[in-house]
Amino acid sequence: MESRKNKDQPIAAVLLGRAFEPDDANRIFTEKIQQRPLFLTPSSPPPSDLRAARRRALQKKTEQRKKALKPKPLSASQRRKLGLYDVPREGQKYTIFEPLHNLWLGYMREILGGEIYTGGEGAAAKLASADFHGAEVEVVRSGCVSRVGIKGIVIKDSKFALEIITRKNNLKLVPKEGTVFRLEVPAPASESDRHQETATAKQDQPSSMVIEIHGEQFQYRSADRANKKFRSHFSKTL
């Protein structure tokens, strides 16, 4: 009879009856178990929003279509194969690059300012970060004797070499390693020089700034050199 009564009772009441007195077990079961709801986590996922799913699928499809239509950039090897870095034969003329050289002279006068007359560490720091496309350079020292004396306008400043167009319309590729380049930046003509008011000012003021560049210290691309901070250090080649 007692076992049948236990079967009719909830399992929680039966367990409490084994641990507490009957009155205490009934009170605990009524206050803390029977009157308290039991929250169960559903095993199945919540219903998905079909509209949001369609929107995400449409957005993903649109992005994939944009990527397919957008051409991929060419690699460096592909650019070389296509000859994008090569100057065509009809464009290898000194007169074509003379306006570029004049622009470069104005650029150098602007960044040097008054240091074009005095030089010093300030001018050296500015020259180290300058762009030499359009500069007229001359090879004064080189490990290869046949390169000494090459003079012309720089049309390409790569990491390890300079491409120079000479006055005879010859394109020369000069490596930077083991080579010393000389370039000259004429000082801007002042009003006194133009009107020839003072001859002493002409004698005291230098006519141009002559710079010698050791190519081994400039083995960087012009874009990388513009953002690089150079520090003065001892060089064994000097």
The secondary-structure class comes to: alpha+beta
Report strand order across the widest sheet. Answer: 4-3-2-1-5-6
H and E order? HHHHHHHHEEEEEHHEH
Proportion of strand residues: 15-25%
Helix content: 40-55%
Q: Cα distance, first to last residue? A: 112 Å
Give a quick account of the main beta sheet: strands, pairing sense, barrel closure: 6 strands, antiparallel
Question: Which regions contain 5 or more consecutive residues with pLDDT less than 50?
Answer: 197-202
What shape does the CA trace take?
Answer: elongated
Mean pLDDT level: 79
Number of helices: 11
Walk me through what this model shows.
- This protein is an alpha+beta fold and 238 residues long.
- Helix content is 43%, strand content 17%.
- It contains 11 helices and 6 strands.
- The protein has helices at residues 2-8, 11-19, 22-34, 50-69, 76-82, 94-112, 115-118, 121-128, 191-195, 199-204, 222-226, and strands at 136-142, 151-157, 161-166, 171-175, 179-186, 208-214.
- It has a 6-stranded antiparallel sheet with strand order 4-3-2-1-5-6.
- Helix 2 packs across helix 3 (22-34).
- The longest helix is centred in the N-terminal third of the chain and has 20 residues, at 50-69.
- Residues 197-202 have low confidence and may be disordered.
- It comes from Lasiosphaeris hirsuta.
- Its main location: nucleus.
- Residues 198-207 have a biased composition (Polar residues).
- Residues 35-75, 187-207 are annotated as: Disordered.
- Belongs to the eukaryotic/archaeal RNase P protein component 1 family.
